[in-house]
């Protein structure tokens, strides 16, 4: 039962103490009294159990009790979810829009509030409920509301039983007031009641009736309050904040329009944000779907404004209160306060100039914090009996550094900008005055929505969890952080202007949930280890050792290990082949099949831009959008403005929302004059001609690879190039908004790539333009296959007797270069490609950029399920690169020399598997999480139709680590187990982590030399969670995973049993 599972698997045993509180004691007592009395009365008095109705009545009472207790204990022990200690947003700039919690020593994420009872910042806090002795918040809101619904229903049922029981006790028959309508209980029951009437029994029933009716009324009212706010996607606290916002706007007449950011516009969508079939909310508790006109920090900014308003009101009230005696007036000292360094490096607030030079001069001074020194009046001056000194609490220098959300940051006086460079792009403050002409202290606010002129479009109605746009995050990583690929990434210079907070969440999320476990580990020296203590078996590898284990040259690669492929043919329902297979020849461009375009406009195929169903409204009629596309793109472009105008003609609904700043910067600032001329005279016209050949090249309908499908699509590289050219010109219909049938698919049109002014966007454009230049100058002749694969029956991991396969592990090299010919792992997002056409730029995005043919998989691949993967074979690498994330640079064109297989596909096989994201470190060691990751990896690695001798090794690395919160050593072990079960060797790249290389190699050698099977290791993982993690009271276990395995395996070996010692096999210079 899920209830028992959730009850016994919570990580901190001290949670049991929640029961030792008057709230749960009273609540459980009421439940026990009402349930027990109702069940006993139904057995003894009413309704006779020897009837059908009586049996159903009894079962319903039992059912109410079970459901009520299930939801009650889940609400209590699952908990609301807490913001990690010392949490801060991935983007350093966002700290200015968040409140700082001095207790938790971190920033409060959107919708979170600090609970004084729980002493933690609670995710999406609604209130602290004494009846469950816990907060009602993000993760237990559904359970709490379900309890509020079920308790009145159960009590109402029990009340009916109590009423009928008392009638039965008092009278032998029940009369309803009419002499002709009587119910004779003795006529139904063959025997007399099991217990004769007694005064104590009647009193007990009456008491239980009072409890049931009182609970029904009280809890029922609470339920209606909760469901009201849930249907608007609010909490009780947020409803209060919204009311205060409207009062503030009305009071100061600021002219603002406050839109509650989390109301998605549909009660059903709002309802699904809390209630899901799995019982676990969709969101991660840090970032949230928002209204199209809002952003992640709309509500937090409003909270800061309200706090500023509160300070001003308090100051005015105190001043007025003490002002009636001028000789004893409160002294107000303006103490100059130096802004924190991090704030000085952050966003500078810019203002319009005014004619008031005094205000301009004053605004150039340092910000001051007003400190009220109240001197209470004595009998001589009034206010008798006041003898204490009342002052505002002072904040020390250290707290001033952290608690930066002061009044002065939001109440800014207008001033002239000293230079144009000091102005933030599109950002302005407005001075407002009241009717008397005096300056309104709350009139001037930072206009967050204009930080960049990038409007929030209608497509950003976040209705999906972990949507692809959520991974278009342009935030810098923290100085000590590593991303999911395990590479270190330097943080962005804080002095760099804040990049656009555009609709696709350059403020939202693949980088959004920078794992709390990761950041906490950095501070405590736990980088990459399973716990804070070092493994006792840990040894250090010499600095000149670059790899360990089996030499990489001994691992199997394609095409050497691959068997003969069957003939390529179209198999309906299994494999869609879009070219003629009977005329395939070397160095010839494949011919599309069929010869003429088949127009299909339905929900199981890609809606093509050249389809007759692609219509464009013109006045009172609809015309073909494809004709308009051909007309506008066929014109010669001489600059970016003409290019933009052409694209917006057939995307008129987005004319005010799309931003081509990055494209403009690339063309006008980055390209040399000769290169810019070549772009508009040669490359762009070639790309247009390629895009407009869609009906000639892509003649067969392209099936959508939906969830649950096992299907492959094979197309030529030229067809892929045509589709990518259409994506570049944003021609695919129904793919610019999340409100269409493609809401569960990644973005494909490139409009997000053109937004903002980030240097990462520029490097992306360089990389993609290199691809288009290559394929327009010389037509590619190969094929590419996209296969969605589903794992129907996972292995029985516990009983597996498979032994580990060979391992090569290295701290140098990359998957794409050194893992050529192997099965190369893409550390994927469930929406394949992640933020490749947005602002994301880590392992998956980089791979999709240098092999751009991967991007077209976003056109037809629905979000991956837990038992699915996507396999892409045959893509070509067109670019070289250096750096990573913020330091990524395009390094020129690449000539891919990878050989081809029998189907004219390059022997580059890439598998996209998405890892889970963990809110806390210990969660990933649970058996269900380990099963999911094992099955996901096995789904990507296994090929049941092939012999293991024909399977290439797996080239992988720190899959699901870094911002996803995965433990590197656990993930390495999981991938080794999955590869062994699939019959593949492993080439593991640690991306510079030498200690991880040593630890994983030693563990592999230890297990392999003792013939420890996959099932044995799986059992050890279960033991580790049950004996170490489950009872752990801290955030990290005291015993690391590898130390536990060493100890358990060593202790299981008999004392007289000889064991082989294991020694690392070093590779590198000056080593034998």
UniProtKB/TrEMBL annotation:
Palmitoyltransferase DHHC domain ranges (all copies): 97-241
Residue ranges annotated for the PARG helical domain, each copy included: 672-788
Recorded superkingdom: Eukaryota
PARG catalytic Macro domain ranges (all copies): 795-997
Gene Ontology terms describing biological process: ATP generation from poly-ADP-D-ribose; carbohydrate metabolic process; nucleotide-sugar metabolic process; regulation of DNA repair
EC number(s) from the headed UniProt entry: 3.2.1.143
Cell location: Membrane
Keywords: Hydrolase, Membrane, Transmembrane, Transmembrane helix
Recorded family membership: Belongs to the poly(ADP-ribose) glycohydrolase family.
Name of this chain's protein: poly(ADP-ribose) glycohydrolase
Organism of derivation: Crenichthys baileyi (White River springfish)
């Amino acid at each position: 039962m899920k209830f028992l599972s959730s009850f016994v698997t919570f990580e901190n045993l001290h949670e049991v103490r929640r029961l030792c509180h008057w709230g749960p004691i009273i609540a459980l007592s009421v439940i026990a009294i009402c349930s027990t009395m109702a069940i006993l009365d139904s057995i003894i008095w009413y309704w006779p159990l020897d009837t059908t109705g009586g049996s159903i009545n009894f079962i319903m009472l039992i059912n109410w009790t079970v459901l009520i207790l299930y939801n009650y204990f889940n609400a209590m022990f699952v908990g609301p979810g807490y913001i990690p200690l010392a949490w801060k947003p991935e983007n350093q700039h966002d700290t200015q829009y968040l409140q700082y919690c001095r207790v938790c020593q971190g920033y409060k994420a959107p919708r979170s509030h600090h609970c004084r009872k729980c002493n933690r910042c609670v995710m999406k806090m609604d209130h602290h409920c004494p009846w469950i002795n816990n907060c009602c918040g993000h993760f237990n809101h559904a359970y709490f509301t379900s309890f509020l619904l079920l308790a009145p229903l159960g009590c109402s049922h029990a009340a009916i039983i109590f009423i009928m029981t008392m009638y039965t006790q008092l009278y032998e028959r029940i009369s309803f007031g009419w002499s002709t309508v009587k119910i004779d209980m003795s006529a139904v029951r063959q025997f007399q009641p099991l217990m004769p009437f007694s005064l104590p029994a009647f009193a007990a029933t009456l008491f239980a009736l009072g409890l049931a009716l009182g609970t029904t009324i009280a809890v029922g009212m609470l339920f209606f309050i909760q469901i009201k706010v849930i249907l608007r996607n609010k909490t009780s606290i947020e409803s209060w904040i919204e009311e205060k916002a409207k009062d503030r706007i009305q009071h100061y007449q600021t002219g603002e329009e406050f839109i509650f950011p989390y109301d998605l516009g549909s009660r059903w969508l709002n309802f699904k944000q809390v209630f899901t079939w799995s019982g676990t909310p969709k969101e991660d508790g840090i970032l949230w779907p928002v209204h199209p006109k809002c952003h992640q920090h709309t509500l937090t900014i409003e909270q800061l404004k309200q706090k500023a308003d509160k300070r001003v009101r308090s100051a005015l009230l105190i001043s007025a209160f003490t002002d009636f005696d001028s000789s004893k007036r409160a002294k107000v000292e303006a103490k100059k306060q130096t802004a924190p360094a991090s704030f000085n490096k952050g966003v500078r607030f810019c203002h319009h100039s005014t004619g008031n030079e005094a205000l301009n001069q004053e605004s150039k001074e340092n910000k001051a914090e007003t400190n009220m020194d109240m001197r209470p009046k004595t009998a001589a001056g009034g206010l008798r009996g006041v003898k204490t000194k009342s002052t505002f609490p002072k904040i020390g220098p250290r707290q001033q550094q952290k608690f930066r959300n002061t009044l002065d940051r939001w109440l800014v006086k207008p001033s002239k900008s000293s230079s144009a460079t000091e102005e933030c792009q599109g950002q302005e403050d407005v001075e407002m005055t009241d009717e008397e002409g005096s300056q309104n202290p709350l009139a001037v606010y930072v206009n967050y929505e204009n930080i960049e002129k990038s409007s929030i479009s209608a497509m950003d109605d976040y209705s999906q969890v972990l949507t692809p746009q959520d991974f278009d995050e342009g935030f810098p990583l923290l100085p000590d952080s590593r991303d999911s690929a395990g590479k270190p990434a330097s943080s962005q210079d804080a002095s760099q202007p804040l990049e656009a907070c555009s609709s696709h969440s350059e403020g939202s999320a693949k980088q959004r949930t920078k794992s709390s476990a990761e950041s906490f580990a950095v501070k405590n020296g736990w980088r990459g280890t399973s716990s804070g203590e070092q493994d006792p078996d840990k040894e250090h590898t010499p600095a000149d050792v670059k790899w360990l284990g089996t030499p990489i040259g001994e691992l199997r690669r394609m095409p050497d290990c691959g068997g003969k492929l069957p003939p390529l043919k179209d198999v309906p329902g299994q494999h869609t082949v879009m070219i003629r297979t009977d005329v395939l020849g070397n160095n010839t461009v494949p011919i599309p099949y069929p010869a003429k375009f088949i127009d299909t406009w339905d929900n199981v195929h890609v809606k093509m831009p050249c389809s007759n169903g692609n219509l464009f409204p013109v006045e009172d009629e609809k015309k073909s959008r494809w004709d308009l596309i051909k007309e506008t793109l066929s014109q010669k472009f001489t600059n970016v403005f003409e290019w933009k105008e052409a694209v917006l003609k057939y995307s008129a609904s987005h004319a005010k929302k799309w931003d081509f700043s990055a494209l403009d910067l690339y063309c006008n600032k980055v390209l040399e004059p000769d290169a810019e001329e070549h772009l508009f005279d040669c490359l762009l016209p070639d790309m247009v001609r390629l895009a407009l050949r869609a009906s000639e090249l892509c003649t067969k309908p392209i099936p959508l690879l939906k969830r649950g499908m096992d299907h492959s699509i094979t197309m030529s590289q030229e067809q892929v190039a045509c589709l990518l050219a259409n994506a570049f010109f944003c021609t695919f219909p129904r793919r610019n908004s999340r409100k269409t049938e493609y809401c569960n698919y990644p973005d494909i049109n490139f409009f997000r790539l053109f937004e903002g002014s980030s240097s990462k966007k520029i490097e992306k454009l360089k990389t993609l333009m290199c691809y288009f230049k290559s394929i327009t100058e010389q037509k590619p002749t190969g094929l590419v296959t996209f296969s969605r694969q589903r794992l129907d029956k996972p292995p029985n991991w516990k009983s597996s007797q498979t032994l580990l396969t060979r391992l090569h592990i290295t701290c140098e090299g990359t998957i794409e270069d050194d893992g050529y010919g192997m099965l190369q792992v893409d550390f994927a997002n469930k929406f394949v490609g992640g933020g490749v056409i947005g602002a994301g730029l880590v392992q998956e995005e980089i791979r999709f950029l240098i092999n751009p043919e991967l991007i077209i998989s976003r056109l037809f691949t629905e979000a991956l399920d837990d038992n699915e993967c996507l396999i892409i074979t045959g893509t070509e690498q067109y670019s070289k690169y250096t750096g990573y994330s913020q330091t990524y640079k395009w390094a020129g064109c690449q000539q891919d020399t990878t050989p081809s297989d029998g189907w004219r596909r390059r022997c580059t096989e890439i598998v996209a598997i998405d890892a889970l994201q963990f809110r806390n470190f210990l969660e990933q060691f649970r058996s269900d999480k380990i099963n999911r990751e094992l099955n996901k990896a096995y789904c990507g690695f296994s090929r049941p139709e092939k012999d293991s001798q024909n399977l290439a090794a797996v080239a992988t690395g720190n899959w699901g680590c870094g911002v996803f919160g995965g433990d590197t050593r656990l993930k390495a072990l999981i991938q080794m187990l999955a590869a062994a079960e699939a019959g593949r060797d492993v080439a593991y790249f640690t991306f510079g982590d030498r200690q991880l290389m040593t630890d994983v190699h030693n563990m592999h050698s230890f297990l392999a030399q003792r013939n420890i099977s996959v099932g044995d290791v799986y059992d050890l993982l279960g033991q580790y969670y049950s004996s170490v993690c489950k009872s752990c009271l801290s955030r990290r276990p005291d015993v690391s995973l590898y130390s536990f395995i060493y100890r358990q395996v060593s202790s299981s070996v008999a004392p007289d049993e000889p064991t082989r010692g294991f020694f690392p096999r070093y590779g590198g210079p000056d080593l034998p």
